[in-house]
Amino acid sequence: MSTVDHAAELRTGARPLRGGGLYAGNARAVVHRGWRATRSTNWLVMVSGLFEPIFYLLSLGVGLGGLVGTVTSGGEEIPYAAFIAPALLAVAAMNGAIYDSTWNVFFKIRFAKLYEGMLATSLGPLDVALGEIVLALLRGGLYAVGFMAVMQVLGLNLSWWALLALPSVLLIAFGFASVGMAVTSCLKTFQQMDWINFVMLPMFLFSATFYPLSVYPEPIQRVVQALPLWHGVELVRGLTTGAVDAGLWWHVLYFAVMAAVGTWFTTRRLRALFLG
């Protein structure tokens, strides 16, 4: 059965597109198709991404942490491993969401012509955008759940507030997935896709992931504080260490806006590419 036929089969009858011809209310068809495809062909590649942050945690948090000792976070002295673990949790969510919403989406747009087929059915561009973003969110969420289990085993969740880290990580994944897909919809060659890694690697290294923001000069601190990963790291670190205050809501708002803007832009791009 073709992808287009399967997507059409999942519908329970044709529905008129709402929102100016953008949405049919059937994003689940895209999610179901993507989940079946991943389960049958790419599940090992997807699961393998879980181990990267675990290796970082064991080598740096446990290994280097034996030399560093403790660091100050939220006015409290905490073990170095407990300092970097929530940052790596945010990174795991980012990586899972970005990789699924960039390379996979790029192939579907430029080579498989998958979205062109989907939009030839009664699906709208918002259905496709939401479906693909949810798929990326599921991958980011899978990484987060696995990594949180490792943190719990190692005793690195220092507060009951850590229970809220999982929904926070899903919000982080949503933000990165929506923006990742929006950016990918504008790229045309594999060479341009390398720009994504060019942006992600410095953000991973410098977003207060491995050391406090205070080590930077003040002008550099302002740059770091504009990065989305820094907001994710601060949000998750505050929850897992118990350093909870009203300032965490600014990080939540940042990702809520990021997700909304990314989803809106992706929807418009898919409409322009395939229905314009």
Structural features, described:
72% of the residues lie in helices and 3% in strands. The chain is mainly α and 276 residues long. It has one domain. Strands 1-2 form a two-stranded antiparallel ribbon.
Write a brief caption for the model.
With 276 residues, this protein is mostly helical. The protein contains eleven helices and two strands; from the N terminus they run H-H-H-E-E-H-H-H-H-H-H-H-H. The longest helix has 31 residues, at 80-110.
The whole-angstrom Rg is 20 Å
Overall body shape: elongated
Number of domains: 1
Oligomer, anyone? single chain
* Overall number of strands: 2
Structural features:
276 residues; mainly alpha; two-stranded antiparallel sheet; disordered N terminus; elongated; 11 helices
